[in-house]
Specification:
single chain; 262 residues; alpha/beta; Rossmann fold; 7 helices; globular
Amino acid sequence: MGVLESFSLAGKVAVVTGGAGLYGRQIVAALAEAGAKTFIAARDVAKLEAVAAEERARGFDVTALPLDLSLDASIEALHREVLARAGGRCDILVNNAVTRSALDGWGNDLDAFDKSLRVNASALFKITHLFGTTMRAQKSGSVINIGSMMGMVGVEMANYAGTDMTPNPSPIYHYEKGGMLNFTRWAASILGADNVRVNCLSPGGFFNNQPAPFVKAYSERTQLGRMANDTDLKGAIVFLASDASVYVTGTNIPIDGGYTAK
């Protein structure tokens, strides 16, 4: 196999949780463009179907399915449905969906924290176990967890100077994304003997018309001098999903313009 051929996902089956958000949209496009039969799953099926229809219009094989990550039965149903539609196999799982907690600070009841953790931690374990079991039986597969550079660093308060923006006052998102990094290492250890790889991508801040002082401060904090755009994640997704990264597992790749390298 030539090196360029190793990046192809032709004949592969991919599952992406979420898929209609700022980063999810380019994850779906990357997998589809590389040739994978791609399933995207979330609660808002109508929004996902719009993404799937756009990809099908470009000639790619993308299907939207329902998924509520807070429910065991829904995760199990997605696993069964994908296998039924894809000949009993799955080659790529991208854990991209996330619930962004609106918790106000730290002083919350345990149930409030548990609601976020159920989706961003417990469901991550369950869905990876289900699809990981299928991959183990195949003796091949790639799991890609979508983390965040917020799981690697604290808050740079100076980025918010001169704006009415404030950092999230709750620690929950930083905690969950930090935990995802070590879950990636743990799962890679467990699944590696069966040739199933588990890696994490940690994106940086996405330009989304934030106030100019924030964009300037954030961009200057990076080494490439800008925020992320709507294609920056695509190459890394295809690399980790494909045989081009056949000897890469248990790692985290920041896609952040050098923000966390400073």
